[in-house]
Amino acid sequence: MVGDVLIVEDEPDIRRLVVLTLEREGFRCRAAATGTEALREVKAKVPDLVVLDLMLPEVDGLEVCRRLRADRVTSALPIIMLTAKADEVDRVVGLEMGADDYLVKPFSPRELAARARALLRRVRQRETPRALSVGTLTLDADRHLVTAGGQAVPLTPKEFDLLQALLESAGRVLSREQLLARVWGYARADEIESRTVDVHVRRLRAKLGAEGRRIATLKGVGYRFEAE
Fold this sequence. Notes:
By secondary structure, the protein is α/β, with parallel strands linked by helices. Helix content is 43%, strand content 21%. The protein has a five-stranded parallel β-sheet with strand order 2-1-3-4-5, with helices on both faces. The chain has a four-stranded antiparallel β-sheet with strand order 6-7-8-9, with helices on one face.
């Protein structure tokens, strides 16, 4: 079994299609038609992954995402957001709220399954067998734990992977394209996908506090984690 997925989608036909596609790929699926129902399902049993529609009745997808990220139990829960809104601002807002990835409707169910597998694989299979430390910042890949200034820092899966990539290359510049390939698995990226890196870096800096200032921006080039 690949994992337990909660699909949150108010359109019955799309919901059935997504459930059928993911179950064929080996996922165990539950479904919710409203934001309220989704929050209730997560509280009853935390899934391995949430596939979350943006436009939902009662409580919209952005608010569901915000509440999940605000709860210590679900703060690192992987979230793929589905949206019919293709505008850049809508995608960026979803990422700002804490989504790890997004797909724009209409989307390929097979692509959704591939992204779900890739996200869960990166969450579960951390290859770094040691802790990475710079200053008061420590990343323990085995325990999926980050601390800064002696305090635990709750990160989403993508934020964790991004920090790990930057720490492993501390002192070296990584372009947005390199980060998209290493963290998101994108072989090629358009302008909006490149903005995804910027959004996650901004969130990561904020969460790391003083240590976040070590993530330097090289305009037109990329990002570098300053080890000194």
